[in-house]
What we know:
By secondary structure, the protein is α+β, with helices and mostly antiparallel strands. It is built from five helices and eight strands; from the N terminus they run βααααββββββαβ.
Amino acid sequence: MAFQFETTYDQKGLTVMARALRKTIRKKRSRRSHIFGWCIVALDVLLIAVGRMLGEPWTLRDTLNLGVGAILTAILFTEDQVNAFFATKKLLPGTSSARCVFAEEGYTSTTEAAVSEFRYETVQQVCETEDYFVLLFSRQHGQIYDKASLSGGTVEDFRTFITEKTGKPVAYIK
């Protein structure tokens, strides 16, 4: 039995992949980064508040602190979209869409630029979202597969197949 997917690596798909990486392989590092970021935002707010409580006039430093705090807060809330934006910029020409065929011994991904063959044992984590399956290879690399384009079986059949072939349970990511 061969499963086939046709996937476009767009902002939506890459956001899903970034979220899957953040919630699985990068979980510990992401948590540390978020704690550090929120500490910086809290310090920023504290510095501005102390200046107001002491009756000091508004200065350029306060404006810069407010700007840094606002930008950092926005990035902390949209981290996955920001990562996807930069990933989109790093895509090589001809790799924005892929056709992938999963067979018993491995799977093949075909883009305009190349044909790549993969073995199931290289997969570190298998994730599933509402619209995609995500295979993660490292902290920086993964592949997405659009469920809407699945042919050769059902979503349940593919979930069972990929779990069996990789030996990894499928983690559902919201």
